[in-house]
From TrEMBL:
Belongs to the ketopantoate reductase family. It comes from Flavobacterium xinjiangense. Residues 5-156 form the Ketopantoate reductase N-terminal domain. One of its GO terms (biological process) is pantothenate biosynthetic process. InterPro entries: 6-PGluconate_DH-like_C_sf, 6PGD_dom2, ApbA, KPA_reductase, KPR-Related, KPR_N, NAD(P)-bd_dom_sf. Keywords: NADP, Oxidoreductase, Pantothenate biosynthesis. One of its GO terms (molecular function) is 2-dehydropantoate 2-reductase activity. Residues 184-305 form the Ketopantoate reductase C-terminal domain. This is 2-dehydropantoate 2-reductase. GO terms for cellular component: cytoplasm. It catalyses: (R)-pantoate + NADP(+) = 2-dehydropantoate + NADPH + H(+).
Length: 311
């Protein structure tokens, strides 16, 4: 019987890693890749495949199935979720018929609140923790562009059977995905969250890309202030993060293409809804919960909350 893997969210993350899986398991006897997509994206991929553009190459891949019809999707063994965080509940409930009690769910969102929110919806399911480092985005319907060579996927769980985790890791490895099954996954996810939360908040607040922030003393100061506030919260929560986490995060940013920016900033510039709750407001709320002052995050939240499209 084939292992059936659904990809929910065909953006920069879901599209890219889903594309690698679709390429590796095209017409496979052991693994079936299902793209859960609707509208123009579904139509384009069904007709022309999913195109992935990299710095020096491009490829077009076809999944086993591309649909938003539960009857066509059928039951899933694994579900990789990569929608925007504001779509978590609605997107998952739309395919609840495809999620059995044995479906293992791997969230690959920008925030850290997704596993708890998913577990609230599906309390009987194994919900893993995961995160990715990648610069990729939708450039048009059915076309994903990845910038730079840096791409890593981390996942794990403190409760799931090791056989379940090893099986997924083997599937990733055979698809040439640089994936890591880690024991201390909560710390790993928070390291990524510190990186993306501060970056999304800074780029969106300042309306600047990575290079502009790094080259401006005042902009860099805002970014570092955000890092100081969020790492203080992580420390109070008892997370065992590296002592030099702020320096590591800045070095990580310096390795990112200078003309790149956060997905939240791209959405803001395009007039789309932004992930303000999970990436900025969540930190302010955690600060209130743990009695940690977050004046810079509050400043960002106050400004971006005035944007009518924010949640």
């Amino acid at each position: 019987m084939k292992t059936r893997i659904g990809i929910l969210g065909m953006g920069g993350v879901g599209g890219y890693f889903g594309g690698l899986l679709a390429k590796a398991y095209f017409e496979s006897d052991s693994v079936e890749i299902i793209f859960i997509a609707r509208g123009e994206t579904q139509k384009t991929i069904a007709q022309n495949g999913l195109k992935i553009i990299q710095d020096d190459s491009e490829m077009t891949v076809f999944p086993s199935i591309v649909s938003d019809d539960s009857a066509v999707i059928e039951k899933l063994d694994y579900l990789i979720c990569a929608t925007k965080t504001y779509d978590i509940e609605e997107s998952l409930l739309s395919i609840k018929k495809n999620i059995t009690k044995n479906t293992v769910i791997l969230p690959l969102y920008n925030g850290v609140d997704a596993p708890a929110r998913i577990s609230d919806l599906f309390p009987d399911n194994e919900v893993l923790q995961g995160c990715v480092y990648i610069v990729s985005m939708i450039v048009s319907s059915g076309v994903i562009k990845k910038i730079g060579t840096y791409e890593k996927l981390f996942f794990g769980s403190g409760t799931s059977p090791i056989a379940t985790l090893n099986k997924l890791q083997s599937i990733f490895e055979k698809a040439s995905i640089e994936s890591y099954l880690v024991d201390n996954i909560e710390e790993t996810v928070w390291e990524k969250f510190i990186f993306i939360s501060a970056l999304a908040s800074a780029t969106s607040f300042l309306n600047e890309n990575i290079g502009e922030i790094l080259n401006s003393q005042s902009s860099r100061g805002v970014y570092v202030s955000l890092l100081n506030e969020i790492t203080m919260i992580a420390a109070v929560k008892g997370l065992n993060l590296p002592a030099d986490i702020i320096l590591q995060t800045i070095l990580k940013l310096e390795k990112t293409p200078r003309d790149a920016t956060s997905s939240m900033h791209r959405d803001l510039m395009a007039g789309r809804k932004i992930e303000l709750f999970s990436l900025t407001e969540f930190v302010v709320n955690e600060g209130i919960k743990y009695e940690i002052e977050t004046p810079t995050y509050q400043m960002v939240l106050d400004k971006l909350s005035s944007v009518s499209i924010s949640n």
